[in-house]
Design a protein that fits this description.
497 residues; mainly alpha; disordered N terminus
Length: 497
């Protein structure tokens, strides 16, 4: 691993164009409304039954509790690195490097999963709705190109583009919800959906898994701190706004779905219809035009998810490279756009190799690749959220002046308990999460543990052979602090491989 000489070290991006609204859009785009409701919710119903709406609410509460401590940390630390920095400052440098490696092992396959599933939907929808037959490899190549161009530009370009896409998706779901309510009224909101008999019925653990997966991406807010005008205010506001929007919109839509079919029938209907469930509801309550609109917007939704996850993962990779934990060339920014250009190119290239390589070996991109990649990624992301939650508690316990019994104590502790439970359920139910049930797939989540262990070993080697550099890991509270630390470190020799 080669690290930069002093002359090649550049400052972190300083083009601050983001505000709370734009960050909220970037967060929601990581699990866009149509991608979640049309693509994921039917699976939650099929394998988790009528408990799904309650699990959306429960997931929202758990994530909110986590956010209480998370936002306190984001007000204190606005330098690049997000969860890696939080874990380093709370649990120590070795834990921080371990968490960094775990995060990369989770986000990278999750990103590849986005590029595996989107061409499947693109090929299917274009053929069914418009009669256009585009082979999925060509569609995948088109998606890689368009996402790459959008991500390569300045971050506010992505934010503005995604704001339009997400707005259209929300509008479509609101039209569907209003149409259903106008026709069937309050019968669509059965109170017993949240009774213990239904919300804790058989399969609720699987429903919780699918629900909490819909919040993946909320943690990305802190990754945009260096490009945000007022990160100490904007990041907490954006995080709360995104979590509230996801909880209300997804929870309400799935609750009304239970009202349409009945708590005793929704699981069997979802098993029979799967991805057609909400298209059929749109046709039934509004008409064919909404079904077609929803189908075409699914293409937009898949693009939005891919772009949002690319932006977030690239900024994480970029920050770790500048910290000296990844090859130096991954830390290079575009001269004009200040985007993490090399990280973007690498991640898209790596995803392309996985997707096209798997296709060449005979694997189906949707049935064999996307579900497994999403499953592995989701387990790792929720695990790193749990680690960050613990680090917040420990950090503020040491910083006695900033400790608050509720904000940095009880709330994140309850969030931690919920996230740890979710990780356990996700591993226990991994065959449902990934869509595969065989011995090899079952051991994939444990490879995440191996990645985290590898990070810990690397940190110890760095501590032994480069103690000065090891001591600088995770230091600095702001972007300018981080710039000064990077510029002061010539990195004349390389760390252990």
């Amino acid at each position: 691993m080669t690290l930069p000489a002093e002359s090649s070290i550049e400052a972190a991006p300083r083009v601050r164009t983001l505000n709370a609204f734009r960050i909220t859009v970037l967060i929601i785009s990581a699990s866009t409304p149509l991608a979640t409701i049309v693509g994921t919710a039917p699976l939650g119903f099929a394998f988790g039954g009528a408990s799904l709406p309650a699990m959306y609410v429960l997931s929202g509460v758990l994530i909110f509790l986590f956010c209480v401590g998370y936002t306190q940390m984001s007000r204190r630390i606005t330098r690049p690195g997000a969860f890696y920095v939080y874990i380093t400052r709370g649990l120590g440098r070795t834990a921080g490097v371990s968490g960094a490696w775990l995060a990369l092992a989770a986000y990278t396959p999750f990103l590849a999963g986005c590029f595996a599933i989107a061409p499947y939907y693109g090929h299917l929808i274009l053929e069914q709705e418009l009669g256009i037959n585009i082979p999925w490899p060509l569609y995948a190549l088109f998606l890689f190109t368009t996402v790459g161009i959008a991500a390569y530009r300045r971050i506010d370009f992505s934010a503005k583009l995604l704001a339009v896409f997400v707005g259209l998706e929300v509008l479509v779901l609101v039209v569907l919800d209003v149409a259903m309510f106008a026709k069937d009224g309050t019968s669509l909101l059965p109170a017993d959906t949240f009774s213990t008999d239904i919300s804790l019925s058989t399969g609720f653990g699987v429903a919780l898994v699918f629900a909490i997966m819909s919040f993946v991406g909320f943690e990305s807010a802190a990754l945009y701190a260096p490009e945000t005008k007022n990160p100490r205010r904007a990041i907490p506001r954006a995080t709360y706004a995104a979590v509230l929007t996801i909880t209300v919109l997804y929870g309400l839509t799935t609750w009304m779905t239970v009202g349409v079919f009945g708590a005793d029938k929704v699981q069997n209907i979802a098993l029979a219809q799967f991805g057609d469930l909400y298209f059929n509801l749109a046709d039934q309550y509004v008409g064919g035009w909404l079904r077609t609109t929803m189908a075409l917007l699914m293409l937009v939704a898949q693009f939005a998810v891919a772009l949002a996850i690319t932006n977030a993962t690239a900024r994480y990779t970029h920050a770790l490279a500048k910290e000296g934990l990844l090859p130096a060339w991954l830390g290079k920014s575009h001269a004009s756009f200040k985007s993490p250009q090399n990280a973007i190119v690498f991640l898209l290239g790596f995803s392309a190799v996985l997707i096209f390589g798997g296709w060449a070996l005979g694997f189906d991109p949707y049935l064999d690749l996307s579900s497994v990649m999403f499953g592995v990624g989701a387990v790792g992301i929720v695990a790193i959220q749990a680690a960050a939650c613990l680090s917040v508690i420990v950090f503020f316990l040491r910083e006695s002046e900033g400790f608050h019994w509720l904000k940095t104590g009880l709330a994140p502790a309850l969030g931690l308990a919920g996230l740890v439970t979710a990780v356990y359920l996700m591993i226990d139910s991994f065959s449902f999460v990934s869509g595969k049930d065989n011995g090899f797939v079952g051991i994939l989540p444990w490879l995440l543990l191996a990645s985290a262990a590898g990070g810990a070993v690397y940190a110890q080697l760095l501590k032994r052979n480069h103690p000065d550099r090891y001591q600088r890991l995770g230091r600095g509270d702001s972007t300018s602090d981080f710039d000064d630390l990077v510029a002061a470190d010539a990195w004349e020799d390389s760390p252990p491989r």
